[in-house]
User: Which sequence fits this backbone?
């Protein structure tokens, strides 16, 4: 007995201290092996068959058993976790394995894990909601939540609502993790548009794959009195014969209400606008809307009856609709048709679109039948048309593009005539004024302007008035003038000219010199004050006109500080011998710079002659013993300007008896060995040497380069003057005296003059070089070049 109790004690102790745990998913198939108990518990498989093995399950149903041959624990019947452990997140099945001979007991704990074998389902598959159409957006309505017996991730995770522009769902979680859902109104409802909304609410769990369940949501929109009654016609027009018997129904009004129930029950009545006389002549059935004759209809007393009607519903806050009934009494064609201007735009903008309605014209005739059939038209062709929009109502439309600059206003005469016999007619004249819009850009009368301006003008002098025209009106016609900015030789155009922005008067801001600037080309813009502003521009060509503002300068014969020129000639000089040559230059234009020479004083007019064009002084005869030894000649060089400017030179000639070399055309014979000529010889020699070196270097560089380099731009300070061959001959350009005189003039300016011969028929080139350098320069500051054709 003690041995038995001791064995039992050790069994209980072993059970308390050792628990073997396994975990399987629910719904495993029958015969599925859970674990090998023999291997896990260290039992001898071969001895299990002779020993008594008992599996004690703490449940009413036997779900598991032990294979005595293999020692494996296997499934006898499928286990459903939701049945075994309803409502629990964790599920365990406790087993006791009892082996006798000797007695041993093992505590086994089997965990049953959940699988997603259950779909969510709603407690009610159909949910009906009554929602007032006056409910505001954002209002919420509770919906039943779905139930899923699975646990953890396999339970309900989210909800989805079928496509709806009016509703959405809002999901929120309870303290226990349960998902709840509310139906949210997103857009206001309209029962008349859609009385019922059928929605599908879907609950989805979190299993893989996910399972779902649905419920039908029926939203019934409850009516509110938000629709006023509507007549099928806003205006009823009726014709009755005079003396119609009382009780004759002339019209049955038809009004409808989109609401339902009491909100759609209507009653008819006259409004206060219906005259008492009309109510005496006609009766109105409040329920049916029938209007019947009540009194005696007399055409001569009343030709038209007009009734203003109201249909009112029976809602808590009644709504009403209005209509008008016009009753015409038939009679003979003794009434002229009438025109009624119901709406008129008598002032329109000129850019009004084609097709715009400018007037609504109603026509009527108090007669009936053919006598009341009227037709409306215009008496002349205008850019308007009549469009009949309804019975006795016409629209006056714009049919063509209007232009205020062509026609400022239109007088439209409308003529209405009936089809009676004889026909009667009437007319109505309406005036349509066109308002200006800024649709015309300013236009200059000329495509360009050429403005001659005399040099030496006074600053601020008015040059010209350049104005544009704009056919628009008011601010669209007010023009502002601008000079379009442009720079010439780093000088802004606004520093040279200014323009009055109001009247277009163009002014010179400074004095111009023809010898410095010959012309200016710029643009002037005229801009109107419309919105948006329009503008145009015109080219302006300002030509500086030369004035005779430069006095001729006598450069030969050279005289220091304006003193007299003294010359010595032999008395044996032959007739026609060149004694001297006067050369003067003028920096004015070609016309003003044409110089003629005359004797202002001549001791003996028979002895010397002066060529008025080239300034040559020659002997007209040989000297005689009677002739004075000293001759005084005063030559005046006068330009061709108006008034003419002039300069004079005085030449004193002394005759000697000794044989002297007569004056030739080589000016170097004068004072050949003077200091000035010595400097000239030295300078010419130096320049010639440098020129030769430059030519040699240039030839070497040319031979080395495959391509010739581009020629240097002409000197900025170059002075170029061209003359034809005739003028050249007349002024003795080829004569050495000319070069010598030019040399003297340039030498006085501190420069050396080098004559460079060129092929016959080409240009003569004289280069003047600063005397101090002794070098031929090509930069802007170097020298000037005179070219004569």
Assistant:
């Amino acid at each position: 007995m003690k041995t038995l109790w001791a064995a039992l004690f050790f069994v209980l102790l072993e059970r308390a201290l050792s628990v073997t745990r396994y975990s399987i998913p629910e719904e495993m198939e029958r015969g599925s092996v859970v674990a090998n108990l023999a291997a896990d518990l260290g039992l001898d498989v071969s001895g299990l068959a002779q020993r008594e093995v008992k599996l004690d399950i703490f449940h009413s149903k036997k779900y598991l058993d032990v294979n005595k041959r293999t020692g494996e624990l296997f499934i006898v019947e499928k286990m459903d976790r939701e049945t075994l452990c309803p409502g629990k997140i964790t599920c365990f099945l406790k087993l006791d394995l009892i082996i006798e001979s000797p007695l041993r007991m093992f505590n086994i704990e089997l965990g049953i894990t959940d699988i997603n074998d259950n779909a969510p389902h709603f407690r009610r598959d159909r949910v009906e909601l009554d929602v007032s159409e006056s409910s505001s957006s954002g209002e919420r309505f509770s919906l039943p939540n779905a139930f899923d017996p699975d646990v953890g991730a396999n339970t309900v995770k989210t909800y989805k609502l079928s496509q709806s522009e009016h509703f959405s769902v809002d999901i929120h979680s309870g303290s226990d993790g349960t998902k709840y859902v509310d139906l949210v109104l997103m857009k206001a409802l309209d029962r008349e548009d859609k009385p019922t909304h059928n929605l599908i609410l879907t609950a989805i769990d979190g299993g893989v794959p996910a399972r779902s369940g649905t419920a039908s949501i029926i939203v019934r929109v409850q009516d509110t009195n938000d629709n006023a009654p509507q007549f099928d016609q806003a205006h009823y027009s009726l014709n009755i014969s005079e003396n119609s018997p009382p009780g004759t129904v002339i019209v049955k009004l038809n009004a409808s209400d989109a609401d339902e129930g009491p909100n759609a029950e209507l009653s008819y009545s006259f409004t206060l606008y219906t005259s008492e006389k009309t109510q005496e002549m006609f009766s109105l059935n409040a329920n049916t809307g029938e209007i019947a004759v009540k009194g005696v209809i007399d055409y001569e007393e009343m030709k038209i009856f007009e009734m203003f009607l109201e249909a009112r519903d029976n809602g808590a806050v009644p709504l009403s609709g209005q209509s008008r009934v016009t009753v015409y009494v038939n009679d003979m064609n003794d009434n002229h048709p009438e025109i009624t201007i119901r709406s008129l735009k008598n002032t329109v903008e000129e850019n009004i679109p084609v097709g715009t309605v400018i007037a609504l014209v109603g026509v009527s005739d108090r007669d009936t039948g053919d006598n009341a059939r009227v037709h409306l038209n215009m008496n002349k062709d205008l850019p308007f048309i009549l469009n009949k929009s309804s019975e006795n109502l016409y629209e006056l439309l714009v049919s063509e593009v209007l232009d205020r600059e062509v026609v400022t206003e239109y007088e439209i005469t409308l003529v209405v005539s009936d089809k009676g016999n004889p026909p009667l007619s009437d007319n109505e004249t309406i005036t349509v004024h066109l308002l200006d819009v800024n649709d015309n850009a300013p236009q200059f009368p000329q495509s360009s302007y050429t403005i001659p301006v005399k040099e030496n003008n006074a600053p601020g002098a008015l040059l010209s008035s350049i104005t544009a025209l704009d056919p628009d009106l008011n601010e669209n016609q007010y023009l502002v003038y601008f000079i379009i900015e442009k720079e010439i030789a780093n000088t802004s155009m606004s520093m040279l000219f200014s323009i009055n922005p109001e009247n277009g008067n163009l002014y010179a801001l400074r004095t111009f010199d023809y010898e410095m600037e010959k012309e200016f080309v710029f643009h002037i813009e005229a801009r109107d004050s419309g919105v948006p502003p329009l503008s145009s521009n015109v080219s302006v060509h300002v030509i500086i006109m030369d004035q005779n503002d430069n006095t001729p300068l006598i450069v030969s014969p050279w005289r220091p500080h304006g003193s007299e020129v003294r010359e010595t000639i032999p008395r044996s000089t032959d007739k026609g011998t060149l004694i001297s040559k006067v050369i003067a230059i003028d920096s004015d234009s070609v016309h003003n710079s044409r110089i003629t020479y005359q004797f202002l004083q001549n001791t003996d007019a028979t002895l010397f002659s002066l060529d008025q064009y080239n300034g040559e002084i020659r002997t007209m005869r040989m000297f005689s013993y009677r002739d004075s030894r000293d001759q005084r000649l005063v030559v005046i060089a006068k330009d061709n300007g108006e008034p003419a400017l002039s300069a004079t030179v005085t030449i004193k000639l002394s005759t000697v008896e000794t044989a002297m070399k007569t004056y030739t055309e080589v000016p170097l014979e004068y004072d050949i060995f003077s200091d000035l000529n010595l400097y000239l010889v030295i300078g010419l020699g130096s320049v010639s040497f440098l020129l030769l070196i430059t030519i040699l270097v240039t030839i070497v560089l040319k031979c080395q380069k495959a391509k010739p380099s581009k020629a240097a731009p002409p000197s900025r300070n170059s002075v170029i003057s061209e003359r034809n061959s005739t003028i050249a001959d007349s002024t003795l350009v080829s004569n050495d005296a000319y070069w010598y005189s030019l040399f003297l003039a340039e030498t006085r300016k501190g420069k050396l003059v080098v004559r460079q011969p060129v092929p016959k028929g080409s240009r003569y080139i004289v280069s003047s070089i600063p005397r101090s350098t002794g070098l031929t320069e090509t930069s802007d500051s170097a020298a000037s070049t005179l070219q004569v054709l």
In short: The chain has six domains: 24-113, 121-222, 235-259+275-330, 338-435, 448-545, 553-656. DSSP finds eight helices and 54 strands in the chain. The two ends are 159 Å apart (CA to CA).
